[in-house]
Amino acid sequence: MKLRDWLSADRLRRELLVEAQVVPESIRCVQCGICSFYCPINIDIRQHVWDGVPVRDGHCLTCGECVRRCPRGVLRFERSNLFENKR
Amino acid sequence: MTHYLIIGAGSAGISAAETIRRLDASGEITQVCAEADGYYSRPGLAYLLADEIPEQQLYPFRQGDFQRLQIRMLHAQVQQIIPQLHQVVFNDGRLLGYDRLLIAMGAFAVMANLPGAELQGVVKLDNLEETRRILKFARKGRRAVVVGGGITALELVEGLRLRGMQVDYLLRGERYWPNVLDETESRIVEQRLKQAGVRIHYQTELSEILGKGGKVVGVHTTGQGHLPCDLVGMAIGVAPRKQIGETAGLKVDKGILVDDTMLTSVPDIFAAGDVAQVYDPRLGKSIVDSLWEPARAQGRIAGTNMAGQTERYIKAVPFNVTRLAGITTTIIGSVGGRDGDPDVVGIVRGDSEGWRQVPHALTVQSNSDVNRLRLLVGEHNLVGGVVMGDQRVSDLVYQLVAHQIEISSIRQKLFTPGADIEAALASFIPTSGDFGRR
Q1: What is the CA radius of gyration of chain A?
Q2: What value of ipTM does the predicted structure carry?
Q3: Is B132 in a helix, a strand, or coil?
Q4: Which residues partner with B212 through β-bridges?
Protein backbone atom coordinates (compact mmCIF):
# COMPACT_ATOMS: atom_id res chain seq x y z
CA MET A 1 0.00 0.00 0.00
CA LYS A 2 1.33 3.43 -0.88
CA LEU A 3 2.15 5.74 2.00
CA ARG A 4 -0.42 8.22 0.74
CA ASP A 5 -3.14 5.54 0.87
CA TRP A 6 -2.10 4.47 4.33
CA LEU A 7 -2.17 8.03 5.60
CA SER A 8 -5.62 8.71 4.19
CA ALA A 9 -6.93 5.42 5.57
CA ASP A 10 -5.54 6.37 8.95
CA ARG A 11 -7.02 9.85 8.78
CA LEU A 12 -10.37 8.35 7.85
CA ARG A 13 -10.19 6.07 10.82
CA ARG A 14 -9.45 8.95 13.18
CA GLU A 15 -12.20 11.11 11.68
CA LEU A 16 -14.56 8.20 12.17
CA LEU A 17 -13.68 7.90 15.84
CA VAL A 18 -14.40 11.56 16.43
CA GLU A 19 -17.16 12.49 14.04
CA ALA A 20 -19.16 9.40 13.26
CA GLN A 21 -21.96 7.55 14.91
CA VAL A 22 -23.52 4.18 14.36
CA VAL A 23 -26.57 4.48 12.11
CA PRO A 24 -29.01 1.65 11.42
CA GLU A 25 -30.80 0.52 8.28
CA SER A 26 -33.66 -0.95 10.27
CA ILE A 27 -35.37 -2.84 7.47
CA ARG A 28 -32.45 -5.27 7.42
CA CYS A 29 -32.63 -6.04 11.12
CA VAL A 30 -33.99 -9.28 12.56
CA GLN A 31 -33.43 -8.36 16.23
CA CYS A 32 -30.97 -11.20 16.79
CA GLY A 33 -29.07 -9.20 19.42
CA ILE A 34 -25.53 -9.81 18.19
CA CYS A 35 -24.87 -6.07 18.12
CA SER A 36 -25.83 -5.52 21.76
CA PHE A 37 -24.03 -8.67 22.84
CA TYR A 38 -20.66 -7.53 21.51
CA CYS A 39 -20.89 -3.91 22.61
CA PRO A 40 -18.13 -3.30 25.14
CA ILE A 41 -20.19 -0.53 26.76
CA ASN A 42 -23.38 -2.61 26.88
CA ILE A 43 -25.40 -0.17 24.85
CA ASP A 44 -28.69 -1.68 23.71
CA ILE A 45 -28.01 -1.20 20.03
CA ARG A 46 -30.78 -3.63 19.11
CA GLN A 47 -33.32 -1.32 20.73
CA HIS A 48 -31.92 1.66 18.84
CA VAL A 49 -32.39 -0.25 15.61
CA TRP A 50 -35.96 -1.26 16.49
CA ASP A 51 -36.71 2.42 17.17
CA GLY A 52 -34.88 3.45 14.00
CA VAL A 53 -32.53 5.85 15.75
CA PRO A 54 -28.77 6.27 15.52
CA VAL A 55 -26.67 5.45 18.56
CA ARG A 56 -26.27 8.90 20.06
CA ASP A 57 -25.18 7.54 23.41
CA GLY A 58 -22.17 9.55 24.53
CA HIS A 59 -20.57 6.37 25.82
CA CYS A 60 -20.27 4.88 22.34
CA LEU A 61 -16.61 4.42 21.49
CA THR A 62 -17.26 3.99 17.78
CA CYS A 63 -15.19 0.86 18.18
CA GLY A 64 -17.02 -0.67 15.26
CA GLU A 65 -17.68 -4.08 16.82
CA CYS A 66 -21.41 -3.92 16.19
CA VAL A 67 -20.93 -2.73 12.63
CA ARG A 68 -18.55 -5.55 11.93
CA ARG A 69 -20.47 -8.29 13.72
CA CYS A 70 -23.97 -7.68 12.39
CA PRO A 71 -24.76 -10.61 10.10
CA ARG A 72 -27.27 -8.59 8.11
CA GLY A 73 -25.29 -5.44 7.40
CA VAL A 74 -27.71 -3.28 9.37
CA LEU A 75 -25.21 -0.84 10.82
CA ARG A 76 -22.84 1.68 9.31
CA PHE A 77 -20.82 4.67 10.42
CA GLU A 78 -22.09 8.03 9.35
CA ARG A 79 -20.61 11.41 10.03
CA SER A 80 -22.52 13.50 12.49
CA ASN A 81 -22.05 16.74 14.30
CA LEU A 82 -22.46 15.79 17.91
CA PHE A 83 -22.75 19.40 18.93
CA GLU A 84 -25.57 20.19 16.53
CA ASN A 85 -28.90 20.65 18.23
CA LYS A 86 -30.74 17.50 17.27
CA ARG A 87 -34.01 16.16 18.62
CA MET B 1 -62.90 -0.03 26.29
CA THR B 2 -61.75 -2.14 23.40
CA HIS B 3 -60.51 -5.68 23.93
CA TYR B 4 -57.71 -6.53 21.55
CA LEU B 5 -56.57 -10.11 21.18
CA ILE B 6 -53.38 -10.99 19.36
CA ILE B 7 -52.54 -14.60 18.64
CA GLY B 8 -48.80 -14.88 18.19
CA ALA B 9 -45.80 -13.16 19.71
CA GLY B 10 -43.42 -12.84 16.81
CA SER B 11 -42.38 -9.81 14.84
CA ALA B 12 -45.92 -9.15 13.54
CA GLY B 13 -47.72 -9.72 16.81
CA ILE B 14 -45.34 -7.65 18.91
CA SER B 15 -45.29 -4.84 16.39
CA ALA B 16 -49.10 -4.80 16.40
CA ALA B 17 -49.25 -4.78 20.19
CA GLU B 18 -46.84 -1.84 20.45
CA THR B 19 -48.74 0.07 17.79
CA ILE B 20 -52.11 -0.49 19.44
CA ARG B 21 -50.76 0.67 22.78
CA ARG B 22 -49.35 3.81 21.16
CA LEU B 23 -52.77 4.64 19.74
CA ASP B 24 -55.00 3.34 22.50
CA ALA B 25 -53.79 4.03 26.01
CA SER B 26 -56.70 2.36 27.76
CA GLY B 27 -57.58 -0.62 25.60
CA GLU B 28 -56.98 -4.09 26.95
CA ILE B 29 -54.37 -5.97 24.97
CA THR B 30 -54.03 -9.71 25.42
CA GLN B 31 -51.29 -11.52 23.56
CA VAL B 32 -51.36 -15.29 23.27
CA CYS B 33 -48.23 -17.28 22.58
CA ALA B 34 -48.17 -21.04 22.10
CA GLU B 35 -44.44 -21.19 22.72
CA ALA B 36 -43.27 -21.21 26.31
CA ASP B 37 -40.27 -19.12 25.23
CA GLY B 38 -42.43 -16.16 24.25
CA TYR B 39 -41.06 -13.38 22.08
CA TYR B 40 -37.63 -14.04 20.65
CA SER B 41 -35.79 -13.54 17.38
CA ARG B 42 -36.47 -16.61 15.28
CA PRO B 43 -33.92 -15.60 12.63
CA GLY B 44 -31.41 -15.41 15.48
CA LEU B 45 -31.67 -19.17 16.03
CA ALA B 46 -29.13 -19.61 13.24
CA TYR B 47 -26.63 -17.53 15.23
CA LEU B 48 -27.36 -19.45 18.40
CA LEU B 49 -26.63 -22.64 16.49
CA ALA B 50 -23.43 -21.11 15.12
CA ASP B 51 -22.38 -20.20 18.68
CA GLU B 52 -22.30 -16.46 18.01
CA ILE B 53 -24.70 -15.61 20.80
CA PRO B 54 -26.03 -17.34 23.88
CA GLU B 55 -29.68 -18.23 24.15
CA GLN B 56 -30.51 -15.38 26.54
CA GLN B 57 -29.51 -12.83 23.93
CA LEU B 58 -32.37 -13.79 21.61
CA TYR B 59 -34.95 -11.88 23.60
CA PRO B 60 -35.44 -8.26 22.47
CA PHE B 61 -37.76 -7.50 25.37
CA ARG B 62 -36.52 -7.28 28.90
CA GLN B 63 -38.50 -8.23 31.93
CA GLY B 64 -40.93 -5.44 32.51
CA ASP B 65 -41.34 -4.43 28.88
CA PHE B 66 -44.69 -6.25 28.65
CA GLN B 67 -45.79 -4.64 31.89
CA ARG B 68 -44.67 -1.22 30.70
CA LEU B 69 -46.77 -1.66 27.57
CA GLN B 70 -49.59 -3.14 29.65
CA ILE B 71 -49.80 -6.23 27.51
CA ARG B 72 -51.18 -9.33 29.13
CA MET B 73 -49.21 -12.30 27.86
CA LEU B 74 -50.86 -15.70 27.93
CA HIS B 75 -48.95 -18.88 27.24
CA ALA B 76 -51.67 -20.96 25.69
CA GLN B 77 -52.77 -22.44 22.41
CA VAL B 78 -55.85 -21.25 20.57
CA GLN B 79 -57.79 -24.15 19.19
CA GLN B 80 -60.66 -22.40 17.50
CA ILE B 81 -62.03 -18.99 16.58
CA ILE B 82 -65.78 -18.39 16.71
CA PRO B 83 -66.24 -15.18 14.71
CA GLN B 84 -69.99 -14.92 15.28
CA LEU B 85 -69.45 -14.81 19.04
CA HIS B 86 -66.21 -12.80 18.87
CA GLN B 87 -64.60 -15.53 20.92
CA VAL B 88 -61.66 -17.83 20.83
CA VAL B 89 -61.44 -21.26 22.41
CA PHE B 90 -58.20 -22.45 23.97
CA ASN B 91 -56.94 -26.03 24.02
CA ASP B 92 -57.98 -26.41 27.64
CA GLY B 93 -61.51 -25.33 26.83
CA ARG B 94 -61.29 -21.78 28.22
CA LEU B 95 -63.00 -19.05 26.27
CA LEU B 96 -61.86 -15.49 25.67
CA GLY B 97 -63.80 -12.73 24.00
CA TYR B 98 -62.39 -10.04 21.75
CA ASP B 99 -63.46 -6.89 19.95
CA ARG B 100 -60.59 -7.01 17.46
CA LEU B 101 -58.53 -10.11 16.75
CA LEU B 102 -55.17 -10.43 15.06
CA ILE B 103 -53.98 -13.78 13.78
CA ALA B 104 -50.18 -13.58 13.75
CA MET B 105 -49.34 -17.20 14.31
CA GLY B 106 -46.69 -17.36 11.65
CA ALA B 107 -45.62 -20.42 9.73
CA PHE B 108 -44.28 -23.79 10.79
CA ALA B 109 -41.49 -25.87 9.33
CA VAL B 110 -42.78 -28.72 7.22
CA MET B 111 -41.62 -32.21 8.09
CA ALA B 112 -41.00 -34.79 5.39
CA ASN B 113 -43.38 -37.67 5.26
CA LEU B 114 -40.69 -40.31 5.49
CA PRO B 115 -40.23 -43.52 7.40
CA GLY B 116 -38.22 -42.66 10.47
CA ALA B 117 -39.16 -38.99 10.56
CA GLU B 118 -40.37 -39.36 14.12
CA LEU B 119 -37.03 -40.66 15.45
CA GLN B 120 -35.02 -38.74 18.02
CA GLY B 121 -32.38 -36.81 16.18
CA VAL B 122 -34.55 -35.68 13.28
CA VAL B 123 -34.58 -31.93 13.72
CA LYS B 124 -35.65 -28.65 12.17
CA LEU B 125 -34.33 -25.16 12.82
CA ASP B 126 -37.74 -23.79 13.57
CA ASN B 127 -38.08 -22.72 17.17
CA LEU B 128 -36.01 -22.28 20.29
CA GLU B 129 -37.13 -25.48 21.97
CA GLU B 130 -36.06 -27.58 19.02
CA THR B 131 -32.80 -25.66 18.63
CA ARG B 132 -31.92 -26.58 22.20
CA ARG B 133 -32.36 -30.19 21.20
CA ILE B 134 -30.13 -29.71 18.19
CA LEU B 135 -27.44 -28.26 20.43
CA LYS B 136 -27.56 -31.34 22.63
CA PHE B 137 -27.02 -33.56 19.61
CA ALA B 138 -24.45 -31.40 17.84
CA ARG B 139 -21.17 -32.80 19.07
CA LYS B 140 -17.75 -32.74 17.55
CA GLY B 141 -17.11 -35.87 15.57
CA ARG B 142 -20.72 -36.84 15.19
CA ARG B 143 -22.34 -36.96 11.78
CA ALA B 144 -25.22 -34.99 10.39
CA VAL B 145 -27.21 -35.29 7.21
CA VAL B 146 -29.07 -32.18 6.10
CA VAL B 147 -31.81 -32.04 3.48
CA GLY B 148 -33.61 -29.03 2.11
CA GLY B 149 -32.91 -25.74 0.50
CA GLY B 150 -32.89 -22.02 0.95
CA ILE B 151 -31.42 -20.13 3.85
CA THR B 152 -32.47 -22.51 6.61
CA ALA B 153 -30.72 -25.52 5.09
CA LEU B 154 -27.47 -23.57 5.03
CA GLU B 155 -27.97 -22.31 8.55
CA LEU B 156 -28.21 -25.94 9.63
CA VAL B 157 -25.27 -27.04 7.49
CA GLU B 158 -23.01 -24.22 8.67
CA GLY B 159 -24.05 -24.29 12.28
CA LEU B 160 -23.56 -28.03 12.62
CA ARG B 161 -20.25 -27.90 10.76
CA LEU B 162 -19.06 -25.07 13.01
CA ARG B 163 -19.76 -27.28 15.98
CA GLY B 164 -17.41 -29.89 14.61
CA MET B 165 -19.88 -32.29 13.07
CA GLN B 166 -19.25 -34.06 9.85
CA VAL B 167 -21.96 -32.78 7.52
CA ASP B 168 -23.44 -34.39 4.44
CA TYR B 169 -25.78 -32.05 2.58
CA LEU B 170 -28.19 -33.80 0.23
CA LEU B 171 -29.54 -31.86 -2.74
CA ARG B 172 -32.28 -33.41 -4.80
CA GLY B 173 -31.45 -31.15 -7.73
CA GLU B 174 -28.31 -30.12 -9.50
CA ARG B 175 -27.51 -27.05 -7.52
CA TYR B 176 -28.39 -25.06 -4.44
CA TRP B 177 -31.51 -22.84 -4.38
CA PRO B 178 -32.15 -22.88 -8.11
CA ASN B 179 -35.24 -20.72 -8.13
CA VAL B 180 -33.60 -17.71 -6.49
CA LEU B 181 -29.86 -17.94 -7.23
CA ASP B 182 -28.39 -18.39 -10.65
CA GLU B 183 -25.85 -21.08 -11.42
CA THR B 184 -22.82 -18.91 -10.66
CA GLU B 185 -24.21 -17.94 -7.28
CA SER B 186 -25.13 -21.51 -6.42
CA ARG B 187 -21.61 -22.62 -7.23
CA ILE B 188 -20.03 -19.84 -5.18
CA VAL B 189 -22.00 -21.03 -2.16
CA GLU B 190 -21.33 -24.71 -2.81
CA GLN B 191 -17.63 -24.09 -3.26
CA ARG B 192 -17.42 -22.29 0.07
CA LEU B 193 -19.25 -25.13 1.80
CA LYS B 194 -16.90 -27.69 0.31
CA GLN B 195 -13.92 -25.63 1.43
CA ALA B 196 -15.31 -25.83 4.93
CA GLY B 197 -15.41 -29.60 4.68
CA VAL B 198 -19.10 -30.08 3.97
CA ARG B 199 -19.87 -32.98 1.65
CA ILE B 200 -22.51 -32.11 -0.90
CA HIS B 201 -24.38 -34.86 -2.73
CA TYR B 202 -26.29 -33.83 -5.82
CA GLN B 203 -29.42 -35.48 -7.17
CA THR B 204 -29.68 -37.42 -3.96
CA GLU B 205 -32.90 -37.92 -2.14
CA LEU B 206 -33.61 -39.11 1.36
CA SER B 207 -35.74 -42.23 1.19
CA GLU B 208 -35.66 -43.50 4.76
CA ILE B 209 -34.32 -42.52 8.16
CA LEU B 210 -33.00 -45.48 10.15
CA GLY B 211 -33.12 -45.79 13.86
CA LYS B 212 -31.97 -47.94 16.74
CA GLY B 213 -33.52 -47.67 20.15
CA GLY B 214 -35.59 -44.74 18.94
CA LYS B 215 -32.59 -42.69 17.83
CA VAL B 216 -31.27 -41.89 14.38
CA VAL B 217 -28.37 -44.09 13.25
CA GLY B 218 -28.36 -43.47 9.53
CA VAL B 219 -30.26 -42.78 6.36
CA HIS B 220 -31.05 -44.52 3.10
CA THR B 221 -30.72 -42.38 0.05
CA THR B 222 -31.40 -42.71 -3.64
CA GLY B 223 -28.07 -42.10 -5.24
CA GLN B 224 -25.65 -42.43 -2.34
CA GLY B 225 -26.90 -45.56 -0.70
CA HIS B 226 -26.62 -45.80 3.04
CA LEU B 227 -25.10 -42.99 5.13
CA PRO B 228 -24.52 -43.46 8.84
CA CYS B 229 -25.40 -40.40 10.92
CA ASP B 230 -26.55 -39.21 14.35
CA LEU B 231 -28.66 -36.27 13.27
CA VAL B 232 -30.93 -35.46 10.35
CA GLY B 233 -31.62 -31.77 9.73
CA MET B 234 -34.73 -30.92 7.73
CA ALA B 235 -35.23 -27.60 6.00
CA ILE B 236 -37.73 -28.30 3.27
CA GLY B 237 -39.99 -25.32 3.69
CA VAL B 238 -42.52 -23.60 5.91
CA ALA B 239 -46.29 -23.45 5.71
CA PRO B 240 -48.46 -20.63 7.07
CA ARG B 241 -50.65 -21.64 10.02
CA LYS B 242 -53.81 -20.94 8.08
CA GLN B 243 -55.86 -23.86 9.42
CA ILE B 244 -57.35 -21.93 12.30
CA GLY B 245 -58.56 -19.29 9.88
CA GLU B 246 -59.85 -21.86 7.48
CA THR B 247 -62.00 -23.61 10.09
CA ALA B 248 -63.34 -20.24 11.20
CA GLY B 249 -64.55 -19.56 7.68
CA LEU B 250 -61.89 -17.05 6.65
CA LYS B 251 -60.84 -16.87 3.03
CA VAL B 252 -57.53 -18.66 2.61
CA ASP B 253 -55.23 -19.65 -0.18
CA LYS B 254 -51.60 -20.40 0.70
CA GLY B 255 -52.07 -18.22 3.74
CA ILE B 256 -54.89 -16.19 5.23
CA LEU B 257 -55.95 -13.62 2.64
CA VAL B 258 -56.04 -10.00 3.73
CA ASP B 259 -56.75 -6.64 2.16
CA ASP B 260 -54.41 -3.67 2.37
CA THR B 261 -55.52 -2.90 5.92
CA MET B 262 -54.64 -6.46 6.97
CA LEU B 263 -58.32 -7.22 7.41
CA THR B 264 -59.39 -10.76 6.59
CA SER B 265 -62.65 -11.71 4.94
CA VAL B 266 -64.33 -11.67 8.36
CA PRO B 267 -65.02 -8.36 10.16
CA ASP B 268 -62.84 -7.56 13.18
CA ILE B 269 -60.38 -10.32 12.33
CA PHE B 270 -56.99 -9.28 11.00
CA ALA B 271 -53.93 -11.27 9.97
CA ALA B 272 -50.30 -10.26 9.63
CA GLY B 273 -46.86 -11.78 9.21
CA ASP B 274 -45.92 -15.20 7.85
CA VAL B 275 -49.49 -16.45 8.21
CA ALA B 276 -50.89 -13.77 5.93
CA GLN B 277 -51.08 -13.72 2.16
CA VAL B 278 -50.74 -10.15 1.07
CA TYR B 279 -51.35 -8.36 -2.19
CA ASP B 280 -48.21 -7.29 -4.01
CA PRO B 281 -49.01 -4.45 -6.41
CA ARG B 282 -45.74 -5.01 -8.27
CA LEU B 283 -46.79 -8.53 -9.16
CA GLY B 284 -50.53 -8.04 -9.28
CA LYS B 285 -51.24 -10.95 -6.97
CA SER B 286 -51.22 -11.98 -3.35
CA ILE B 287 -48.13 -13.75 -2.14
CA VAL B 288 -46.65 -15.22 1.02
CA ASP B 289 -43.26 -14.53 2.42
CA SER B 290 -41.37 -15.35 5.57
CA LEU B 291 -39.44 -12.19 6.29
CA TRP B 292 -39.02 -10.34 9.57
CA GLU B 293 -39.38 -6.78 8.32
CA PRO B 294 -42.56 -7.22 6.24
CA ALA B 295 -44.05 -9.08 9.21
CA ARG B 296 -43.18 -6.13 11.39
CA ALA B 297 -44.65 -3.63 8.94
CA GLN B 298 -47.82 -5.68 8.54
CA GLY B 299 -48.18 -5.92 12.31
CA ARG B 300 -47.92 -2.15 12.53
CA ILE B 301 -50.55 -1.67 9.82
CA ALA B 302 -52.86 -4.23 11.41
CA GLY B 303 -52.45 -2.58 14.81
CA THR B 304 -53.20 0.86 13.38
CA ASN B 305 -56.38 -0.31 11.72
CA MET B 306 -57.44 -2.36 14.72
CA ALA B 307 -57.10 0.73 16.90
CA GLY B 308 -59.53 2.60 14.70
CA GLN B 309 -57.23 4.58 12.43
CA THR B 310 -56.79 3.79 8.79
CA GLU B 311 -53.50 3.00 7.18
CA ARG B 312 -52.99 1.05 4.00
CA TYR B 313 -50.12 -1.33 3.49
CA ILE B 314 -48.08 -0.87 0.38
CA LYS B 315 -46.03 -4.01 0.06
CA ALA B 316 -42.39 -3.16 -0.32
CA VAL B 317 -40.00 -4.79 -2.72
CA PRO B 318 -39.00 -8.14 -1.14
CA PHE B 319 -35.57 -7.78 0.34
CA ASN B 320 -33.42 -9.82 2.65
CA VAL B 321 -29.81 -9.89 3.71
CA THR B 322 -28.40 -13.12 4.95
CA ARG B 323 -25.22 -15.11 5.08
CA LEU B 324 -24.82 -18.00 2.69
CA ALA B 325 -21.75 -20.11 3.41
CA GLY B 326 -20.35 -17.12 5.27
CA ILE B 327 -20.90 -14.73 2.35
CA THR B 328 -23.21 -11.83 3.09
CA THR B 329 -25.86 -11.90 0.38
CA THR B 330 -28.59 -9.39 -0.36
CA ILE B 331 -31.53 -10.50 -2.48
CA ILE B 332 -33.77 -7.76 -3.87
CA GLY B 333 -36.90 -7.77 -5.96
CA SER B 334 -37.49 -10.27 -8.74
CA VAL B 335 -34.44 -12.39 -9.33
CA GLY B 336 -35.75 -15.86 -9.82
CA GLY B 337 -35.50 -18.32 -12.56
CA ARG B 338 -38.04 -20.56 -14.16
CA ASP B 339 -36.75 -23.63 -12.35
CA GLY B 340 -38.63 -24.82 -9.35
CA ASP B 341 -36.62 -25.90 -6.35
CA PRO B 342 -36.85 -29.64 -5.81
CA ASP B 343 -35.49 -29.24 -2.28
CA VAL B 344 -38.21 -26.98 -0.98
CA VAL B 345 -42.00 -27.14 -0.73
CA GLY B 346 -43.30 -23.59 -0.94
CA ILE B 347 -41.00 -21.09 0.73
CA VAL B 348 -38.43 -21.27 3.49
CA ARG B 349 -37.77 -18.78 6.28
CA GLY B 350 -36.10 -15.65 5.01
CA ASP B 351 -37.65 -16.21 1.62
CA SER B 352 -40.27 -14.52 -0.50
CA GLU B 353 -42.46 -15.65 -3.36
CA GLY B 354 -41.78 -12.21 -4.78
CA TRP B 355 -38.18 -13.15 -5.52
CA ARG B 356 -39.22 -16.02 -7.73
CA GLN B 357 -41.24 -14.04 -10.17
CA VAL B 358 -39.54 -14.28 -13.50
CA PRO B 359 -38.93 -10.68 -14.36
CA HIS B 360 -39.33 -9.02 -17.72
CA ALA B 361 -35.72 -8.11 -17.60
CA LEU B 362 -32.26 -8.89 -18.82
CA THR B 363 -29.45 -9.91 -16.57
CA VAL B 364 -26.14 -8.17 -16.19
CA GLN B 365 -23.54 -9.45 -13.83
CA SER B 366 -20.07 -8.81 -12.62
CA ASN B 367 -17.70 -10.82 -10.49
CA SER B 368 -14.68 -9.59 -8.68
CA ASP B 369 -12.60 -10.97 -5.86
CA VAL B 370 -14.85 -9.59 -3.20
CA ASN B 371 -18.17 -9.04 -4.89
CA ARG B 372 -20.67 -10.80 -7.07
CA LEU B 373 -23.31 -8.48 -8.46
CA ARG B 374 -26.28 -9.52 -10.57
CA LEU B 375 -28.83 -6.99 -11.73
CA LEU B 376 -32.13 -7.62 -13.41
CA VAL B 377 -32.53 -4.69 -15.77
CA GLY B 378 -35.97 -3.78 -17.03
CA GLU B 379 -36.96 -1.29 -19.69
CA HIS B 380 -36.58 1.78 -17.50
CA ASN B 381 -35.51 0.59 -14.09
CA LEU B 382 -33.88 -2.21 -12.16
CA VAL B 383 -36.33 -4.91 -11.11
CA GLY B 384 -34.06 -7.03 -8.98
CA GLY B 385 -30.57 -7.70 -7.78
CA VAL B 386 -28.30 -10.08 -5.94
CA VAL B 387 -25.25 -8.73 -4.14
CA MET B 388 -22.85 -11.30 -2.72
CA GLY B 389 -19.80 -10.35 -0.71
CA ASP B 390 -18.93 -6.69 -0.43
CA GLN B 391 -22.18 -4.94 0.37
CA ARG B 392 -21.40 -1.37 -0.50
CA VAL B 393 -23.73 -1.20 -3.49
CA SER B 394 -26.55 -3.19 -1.94
CA ASP B 395 -28.31 -0.16 -0.43
CA LEU B 396 -28.08 1.65 -3.73
CA VAL B 397 -29.44 -1.31 -5.68
CA TYR B 398 -32.29 -1.61 -3.20
CA GLN B 399 -33.16 2.08 -3.57
CA LEU B 400 -33.03 1.86 -7.33
CA VAL B 401 -35.34 -1.16 -7.37
CA ALA B 402 -37.70 -0.01 -4.63
CA HIS B 403 -38.25 3.47 -6.03
CA GLN B 404 -38.16 2.29 -9.62
CA ILE B 405 -35.57 4.92 -10.40
CA GLU B 406 -35.18 5.65 -14.08
CA ILE B 407 -31.86 4.18 -15.20
CA SER B 408 -31.96 4.98 -18.90
CA SER B 409 -28.84 7.11 -18.51
CA ILE B 410 -26.75 4.04 -17.72
CA ARG B 411 -28.73 1.30 -19.41
CA GLN B 412 -26.51 1.30 -22.47
CA LYS B 413 -23.38 1.23 -20.29
CA LEU B 414 -24.68 -1.76 -18.32
CA PHE B 415 -25.02 -3.92 -21.40
CA THR B 416 -21.64 -3.05 -22.88
CA PRO B 417 -19.47 -6.17 -22.78
CA GLY B 418 -16.90 -5.90 -20.03
CA ALA B 419 -18.85 -3.07 -18.43
CA ASP B 420 -17.89 -1.89 -15.00
CA ILE B 421 -21.36 -2.10 -13.49
CA GLU B 422 -20.38 -0.67 -10.15
CA ALA B 423 -18.88 2.37 -11.81
CA ALA B 424 -22.06 2.84 -13.83
CA LEU B 425 -24.13 2.66 -10.65
CA ALA B 426 -21.78 5.12 -8.98
CA SER B 427 -23.42 7.96 -10.88
CA PHE B 428 -26.47 7.48 -8.67
CA ILE B 429 -24.63 7.67 -5.37
CA PRO B 430 -25.56 10.80 -3.41
CA THR B 431 -22.61 12.57 -1.85
CA SER B 432 -22.90 12.38 1.90
CA GLY B 433 -20.89 11.64 4.97
CA ASP B 434 -21.53 7.98 4.54
CA PHE B 435 -18.63 5.72 5.36
CA GLY B 436 -20.54 2.82 3.93
CA ARG B 437 -21.22 -0.51 5.52
CA ARG B 438 -19.11 -3.62 5.69
Answers
A1: 14
A2: 0.91
A3: helix
A4: B215
